[in-house]
Amino acid sequence: MTKRLLSCAAVGLVAAVVIAADPVKSGESPAGKLAHMVVLPDDLKWGPAPPALPAGSQMAVLDGDPSKEGMFVLRAKLPDGYTIPAHWHSTDEHVTVVSGSFGIGIGDSVDKAKVRYLPAGSYVRLGKEQRHYAIAKGETVIQVHAMGPFDLHYVNPADDPTKKADK
Length: 167
Fold this sequence. Notes:
Elements: H1 2-20, E1 22-24, E2 35-37, E3 47-48, E4 58-63, E5 70-78, E6 83-88, E7 93-106, E8 116-119, E9 123-126, E10 132-148, E11 153-154
Parallel strand pairs: 1-2
Antiparallel strand pairs: 3-4, 4-5, 5-10, 6-10, 6-11, 7-8, 7-9, 7-10
């Protein structure tokens, strides 16, 4: 009986907190206040990916700021065949495949024979400093969440698009 009363009280408390929370408009971060947010597909503002990634992909930030401290969520739209050479990050990277087929490989260089293609609905966590690479099969959308500031270090510095001369 006591367990049931405590359970009911806990559910009631959670419901009261959720009801009292101010909703956050799409694209805004809760910035420390207890709130919820909703991002609908039509709310996404796609733009070019940062210059540290190979040209051709698009990104939309759903929550947070990847360049600042704290959690962020973004989506990336990758064209067919899009390849991110071997790289690593200073924090864990969490990737959910929204659509298409996201190929992931572990190692210091791209080896297409070792790529594992993950269908829509799949999830992968890549540990801090784990060397990996990615290839899209068909247009692919992924959702990435991690702690910022988020960085990208190429295993081979020659793969870094920001270091390549303008052609």
